[in-house]
Amino acid sequence: MAWKTKTRKVSKSTPILASLVMLALGFAGGYQVREQRIPPPAVSVADHSIQVRFSPKKGCQDMLINALLQAKKKVEVAIFDLTSDEVAKALIQLHEKGIWVRVVADNRQSKGKNSKLSLLHRKGITVRIAKCAGVMHHKICIIDDGKGGMLTGSFNYSYGAEHKNIENLLWIRSKALAKVYQQEWQQVWQNAKPYQP
Predict the structure, then answer these.
(1) Distances (CA, A) of 155 to 2, 9, 108, 127, 151
(2) How far apart are CA 33 and CA 17, in angstroms?
(3) DSSP states along 18-58
């Protein structure tokens, strides 16, 4: 679902105080017209449970793999950087068990020498490359349409994220929140192009 956009204009006759307020609210550029994206509505997460892990070496990768291996039907991933042997093995294991695994990744990451996308592709997992003006910087994993929860945070699926970087990963079990993330994932997936090794 695409977000609606609003355009607001500030006339040159606007008092200075109002102009300062507009600047403070994010209308940078003086009298310039700026387009804003209206975010999705707030989601009540009364049905939730959340687990959190941090890195380096404080359980992010273990929690991610534990969540993945609980999948029953489907796993959808949007990830900037996927270089972890362990995460790649878990995704391949799921695919070989008949679980539908789809991965969309950043274009730049797909060309990295340690990228696991080529391996996933060779093993039969459907991989796509996001199309966008900048980078596809999501770190999203949705399990069984949210029934198994969804994972997000700063944590990339990489050696550096697990062993060197200061990162976080949330495993959120909330059908309402998973639905919002799944809509975003679908939009990125539909606009992506097939991976070419």
Answers:
(1) 26, 39, 17, 20, 10
(2) 18
(3) HHHHHHHTT--STT--EEEEPPPPP---TT-EEEEEEETTB
| Residues 181, 68 contacting (CB under 8 angstroms) | no
Q: What is the pLDDT along the chain (197 residues), one digit of tens a residue?
A: 443 434 334 334 434 333 333 333 344 444 343 445 566 666 566 767 889 999 999 999 999 999 999 999 999 999 999 999 999 999 999 999 999 999 999 998 788 889 999 999 999 999 999 999 999 999 999 999 999 999 999 999 999 999 999 999 999 999 888 999 999 999 999 999 999 98
β strands within the chain, DSSP E: 5-8, 34-37, 49-55, 74-79, 100-105, 126-129, 139-143, 150-153, 167-173, 193-194
Q: Which residues contact 128 (CB under 8 A, 6 or more apart)?
A: 102, 103, 104, 105, 189, 192, 193, 194, 195
Q: Which two tokens stand for residue 173?
A: 């079990």
The rounded distance, in Å, linking the Cα atoms of 164 and 160 is 5
Q: Cβ neighbours of residue 46 under 8 Å, at least 6 residues apart? A: none
